[in-house]
Amino acid sequence: MKKITPVSLILGIILHAVFILLCFLIYGFSAAPTGYEEAIGIILLMGLCLFLNAFVLIALALRTPNFYIRIGTIVCAVVNFGFLAFVFIFPIIILLSAVYIFWSYAMVYERKSITAGAIISTLCSCLSVLALYNSLFIPVFIPAFFISFLIFYISLAIGKIHTVPDKEEVVLKLEKIDRKTALEFLGVKRETPENITALFNKYEPLLLGKMSPRCVYKGYSLADCPVPLDGDDINEHLENCGGVILFAVTLGLAADELFRNAEASNMSGAVVLDALASAATEQLCDSAETEIKRKYKNVTTRYSPGYGDFPLSIQENLLSALDAKKQIGLYATSDGLLMPRKSVTAVIGIKN
């Protein structure tokens, strides 16, 4: 899993540290500017830092999948850009938008280090407010405000925020079902009998027209995974992994309706339809896995609950972590069976 530690974030950390140092080297610990030129100098220096900081915020906004964080960081960046034009109005707005960003990241990513960074950064920002319009402006407001951003940038780096979206919903497409795989599900290992070919020709276009395949997946560090990864087999599968991807694929409820109609009218057709649906589900899982590999690079193959000693009882936790019922209409019964029927959940390891 790649972390958000791009050049822009490193630049942000260095920028804030250098800025604080420059403030004290140039102006010392004086309570306020002693003259017009000194006041202009501190405003220009702070404006330059805010201008560059806006680019850091925009870079972070583009790397998070969360809509509210993006909006908050863009708003804060715009406020940063506008500082020089409204130097006496914008500081309090900058502080409020910064605090919004701190807590947005903390709530979305739920990392202890990010939450700690949000708390400390907020306290620093509150300290800044106390000194905003009085003689403590330079020795308190400027260092406290920029220290708050510095702390928060570091907490993001420690918190292992991914450059790829943590959560992705994928709408899958399938134009043709692999009949060889369908034959394997039927247990046919020789040349396809004519009656099965006829049923394939009848039911394949019906299934392709009815199903609405969808997938959702989400990445976690191994320590933060909300699903209990119990069992020797899954632990062996995740050996040398630092993270996991939970994912789920479904053909949708319309496919289930097609099965029920076939079972009522033509049992042979229902068996063939079931095999076609199972083959289609496998193909879609392969497509989703290919997409995941493209984004996360070094990953394991998928491993589903029910394999080996990896218990089916974790289905509910896994689907809850993915918010699968809301996202793709997938849920589990009390017995751990997936509904719609032609659905798959799995765990993929992200190697160190």
Report Rg. 28 Å
In DSSP terms (H or I, runs of 4 or more residues), the helix count works out at 13
Shape, principal axes of CA atoms: elongated
Mean pLDDT: 78
Largest sheet: 5 strands, antiparallel
Strand content: 5-15%
**Portion in helices:** 55-70%
Q: Give unreliable regions as ranges.
A: 1-5, 162-167
Q: How many angstroms separate the termini?
A: 8 Å
Please report the total strand number as a whole number.
Answer: 7
Structural class: alpha+beta
Secondary-structure element sequence? Answer: HHHHHHEHHEHEHHEHHEEE
Lateral arrangement of strands in the main beta sheet:
1-2-3-7-4
Describe this structure in words.
The protein is of the alpha+beta class. The chain is built from 13 helices and seven strands. The protein has a five-stranded antiparallel β-sheet, sandwiched between helices. Strands 5-6 form a two-stranded antiparallel sheet. Strand 5 and strand 6 (338-339) form a beta hairpin. The chain is elongated and about 95 Å long.
Structure summarized in a few sentences:
With 352 residues, this protein is an alpha+beta fold. It is built from 13 helices and seven strands.
